[in-house]
Amino acid sequence: MLRGVRIFIASLLVILLVTLTAVSAVGGAGIASFFQPQSVTLVSQPVQAATPATATITTPSVNQTLDTQSPPAQAGVIDARTAVRASGPAVVTVVNQLGNSNQGFLGQQAATAMGSGVIIDSSGYIITNDHVVEGQQSLQIIFSDGTKTAGTLVGADPFSDLAVIKVTSKVPAVAHFGDSDKLEPGQPVVAIGSALGDFANTVTAGVVSAVHRDLDANSTTPSMKDLIQTDAAINHGNSGGPLLDLTGNVIGINVAVVRGTGATGTDVAEGLGFAIPSNTAQKISSQIISKGYVDRPFLGISYQPITRQIAAYYNLSRDSGLLVTDVTPGSPADKAELKAGTIITQFNGTSITSDMSLMELLMAYKVGDTVKLTIVQPDATTEQTVDVTLAQRPPGQ
User: Fold this and answer.
1) Predicted pLDDT of residue 352
2) In whole angstroms, what is the distance from residue 379 CA to residue 389 CA?
């Protein structure tokens, strides 16, 4: 009888173990996505990185021969080797030593967050994300060869989620910016970064899925506009790492992923990564390097880019431009009598289209400059031109 009970209990344990294993394999890191609405995740490695997944290493048998030659790229497979050789050595791991500490197995330990960055100047300037360096007490930079050095925060711009770090030691390589305005959907791209904070210089490849994407703000992330969307795998720890074209030019700075949508788990999304365009990153980093901050002009509107679908849905008189959805009281736009429903068609003589973002147009000017806006008011059909004097962006705006 006792033997039978033992066998029965052992069987239950086996069944339970198999069931738990199956759930883990199917759900894994994506379990939360099945039960939560769409969430945008900034992809720096969270505080106190988890132990990396266990990997099985297979060694060749006696009769196997290792092929040390690089095989030719297969049809339909992105050959990323040129890009990796050109800019891989310029990719770094950023270790953010935070001010708080945790009680660990070995006693009180300083909390850390980890992300990626890329060297953009031989003087030691490194661009990364603002959320990678947020709350830093000290910064450590790990080069691609494993060498470690201290880094100093030059400045950060929370609005664009970009920051610049400087190191005084000799840098192993420098990456160069490409022209993100020339990107096309379907174009092959390569992402490099410290996946999970532990796997430095992890290379993933994919394509540009779309350009000029916007992500709305939520409880943990700010609103981000005019982003590059890619299906190249972007993991925790990739924040601040480069998105490259196949020649190795930096055409974006990886910043976020969308993990999934829906409450039922029937429409979970994969391959939705986002990067800040290189033209934006170059302008922001140049200002941070020269001044320590970004002198960002402020117009004072919330808006929706107009497409033909948007124009048809709202029965608008124009099928391009910007539809103003809100105006900040006392702002330059408010003083120029813009209001919700106003359409902006031109910014200082430049037509606003899906290929030209307002943020990019604003960054060509400085606080105090007066620009002309061509607008159509909600109660009008004809265009008019108004003068707007750009102000300093208020904190938190």
Assistant:
1) 85
2) 24
Does residue 212 carry a catalytic annotation?
Answer: no
CB neighbourhood size of 263 (10 A): 11
Question: SS3 of 16, please?
Answer: helix
Flag residues of the chain having pLDDT under 50.
1-2, 5-37, 47-71, 73, 75, 106, 219, 263
Out of 87, 144, 160, 161, pick the active-site residue: 161
Among 44, 87, 130, 131, the active-site one is 131
- Closest by CA to 239, choosing from 140, 379, 342, 91, is 91
pLDDT at 58: 34
Which residues are within 8 A (CB) of 288 and not within 5 positions of it... i.e. 6 or more apart?
154, 155, 156, 157, 162, 163, 164, 294
Catalytic member of 144, 239, 278, 357: 239
Residue carrying structure tokens 């103003």: 324
239 is an active site residue: yes
b/e 209-226 (16+ beta carbons within 10 angstroms → b):
bebbbebeeeeebbebbb
Q: Is 290 a catalytic residue?
A: no
> What CA dihedral angle connects 197, 48, 142 and 176, to 10 degrees?
50
